[in-house]
Amino acid sequence: MLNYQDLIPELLEIARKAGNAILEIYHSDADFGVEAKSDASPLTRADRAANEIICRGLEALPVKYPIISEENKLLSFQERQHWTQCWLVDPLDGTKEFIKRNGDFTVNIALVENGEVVVGVVGIPAQDELYWAVKGKGAFLIKDKGEMQIEAARFTQNTPGLNIVCSRSHLTPETEAFIAKYDTPNLVSRGSALKFLLLAKGEAHVYPRIAPTMEWDTAAAQIVL
Questions:
Q1: What is the β-pairing status of strands 85-93 and 67-69?
Q2: Is 183 domain-assigned?
Q3: Fewest beta carbons less than 10 Å away: which of 16, 97, 158, 217?
Q4: Residue 120's domain spans which residues?
């Protein structure tokens, strides 16, 4: 039986290479090559470059699972519903933040088994951070060539001054109404899967997400949290 933890070194390297490709474009003066997808969300050269690196890296692993990526053509549900395992990938989560050059973008790679995330790797290229988790094995942060286990904060909903994370790009009236229920909350505005990671390492407490989202946006960071 496959030990999922054995995949982590290679997955971290894939995420690191994808992040480096994103940063090369991010720090260049060249045009990002922004296009609008069918849902009006942006797509850049960095999305494509990271997606190619990740898909090529996953296909080279000793285990072979189908890949669902935001930037790949999505096969029909009639075919996907029979998959017991698959990769869920968002090669550049937070493309709007990437275009704004505010650093709030991530690389997300998750392995799903029977509808549940069992492995997740999330990179924050602009901060040179990598997060990883395997189901039941804890969550870890790699930074400055060191690795440390991370833990979420302990609190109650009545605790005053909780840090509530909200999206830079998706703050809605429904989210504002949710936040209003808390006692003197501190709003922390961040983009992409970074919001999950702030919760996972105890720097924030609550992340309301009322607007729709996609599984490739949430899967990898979800298991870290």
A1: parallel
A2: no
A3: 158
A4: 4-150
- DSSP 8-state class, residue 75: P
Write out pLDDT tens, residues 34-70. Answer: 665 555 466 688 889 999 999 999 999 999 999 999 8
Give pLDDT tens digits for 69-79. 988 777 778 88
What is the C-alpha separation between 97 and 86, in angstroms, rounded?
A: 27
Return the SS3 of 91.
strand
Question: Which of these, 27, 25, 59, 65, lies nearest to 43 by C-alpha position?
Answer: 25
Contact 92, 98 (CB under 8 A): yes
- HEC per residue, 153-192: CCCCCCCCCCEEEEECCCCCHHHHHHHCCCCCCEEEEECC
Query: Is 0.85 surpassed by the pTM of this model?
Result: yes
